[in-house]
Design goal:
Helix content is about 20%, strand content about 30%. The chain has six helices and 17 strands. The chain has helices at about 25-30, 40-45, 115-125, 155-165, 240-245, 295-300, and strands at about 15-20, 25, 50, 55, 65, 70-75, 85-90, 95-100, 135, 145-150, 170-180, 185-195, 200-205, 210-220, 225-230, 270-275, 285-290. The radius of gyration is 22 Å and the shape is elongated. The termini are far apart.
Length: about 300
């Protein structure tokens, strides 16, 4: 202990290596880890000390492709951690990217004791370092699902806050709307304002309002619903929700914006693709999730065909 009575926390030693050409894992490790014997590396594999991307692997012949990131835990094995309502997609020393499930708050609302993505991920980073911090970069609505990024240190937080709009290269949502959208592609542009009930609405008066531009493309549709990909030139509160409602096709489950149907028991809005400039490396990184199964079941179900 130091003079103030606090215990110094030993930082877990982790390295990562980028794969430059296709290879098997053991062969790759032998080329990048020069001071370990083949038998030692095999022992480390057995003890789960290697990850490819976000997956722990113990297979010496695991196939690597160009661009894969191999992580090494020098002191002990990686833990296979699963958390209710949130899945870790990517993590390094500066950022944490997760896939949030619908129904979970991003951060606490008032004095709520409900689980949140922030609380869950703060617990995660403090497993290795009890004094570790985590900083919120952006949020998703409770009823929405999809990708979120957190900063793991003050420098990353400041970098994100300083250039968040410029850092984001792409942010694509998926939504299921009521009704069959006739135009398969379109752009919606107008001004948005928030009323006293905290509901966003479209106005023709630009005073005290913000310009909002949304693009959409229909991916699937049937007689009752449409699956659309949505991307925005601007990021206004509830922007996609307001704009889809404005063309007569609110997102299913979105009562706030006049949806009357909810066949999957939640609001069908999902942040599928998140591309941004890494706050430390300054390189573009991109993350993508699969289409939520409950979205697809609407178009597979005979009831809706």
């Amino acid at each position: 202990m130091n003079k103030k009575g606090s215990t110094k926390v030993k930082k877990k030693r982790i390295s990562q290596f980028e794969v430059k050409e296709p290879s098997e894992l053991l062969l790759f490790l032998l080329t990048v880890i020069k001071d370990k014997t083949k038998s030692k590396i095999k022992s480390m594999l057995t003890h789960k000390q290697f990850m490819v991307g976000d997956k722990i692997t113990t297979k010496y012949n695991y196939p690597l492709k160009k661009g894969d990131i191999v992580k090494v835990s020098w002191d002990d094995g990686f833990r296979e951690l699963k958390y209710q309502g949130v899945k870790i997609v990517f993590e390094d020393e500066d950022i944490l990217v997760v896939d949030k499930m619908a129904g979970m708050l991003s951060i606490s609302a008032g004095k709520s004791k409900s689980p949140t993505v922030y609380k869950t991920m703060l617990h995660h980073v403090q497993l290795d370092n009890p004094i570790a911090a985590l900083f919120v970069v952006h949020r998703l609505d409770k009823d929405a699902s999809g990708l979120m990024v957190f900063a793991k240190n003050k420098n990353s937080q400041v970098a994100f806050q300083k250039d968040w709009d410029k850092s984001i290269a792409a942010r694509k949502y998926l939504a299921v709307t009521q009704g069959t959208i006739e135009k398969d592609e379109n752009t919606i542009s107008n001004f948005l304002r928030e009323n006293k009930a905290l509901v966003m609405y479209i106005t023709t008066n630009p005073k005290d309002a913000k310009n909002a531009i949304t693009h959409y493309k229909v991916i699937k549709k049937n007689e009752f619903y449409s699956l659309v990909e949505v991307w925005q030139e601007t990021e206004r509160k509830n922007q996609a929700r307001v704009h889809l409602k404005s063309i007569g096709h609110p997102i299913i489950g979105d009562k706030k914006y006049e949806a009357t149907e909810n066949p999957i028991g939640r609001m069908a809005l999902h942040l599928k693709v998140l591309t941004f400039i890494h706050p430390t490396t300054k390189k573009e990184v991109s993350f993508e999730t699969k289409v939520p199964d409950d979205f697809l079941k609407i178009f597979r179900s005979k009831y809706y065909q």
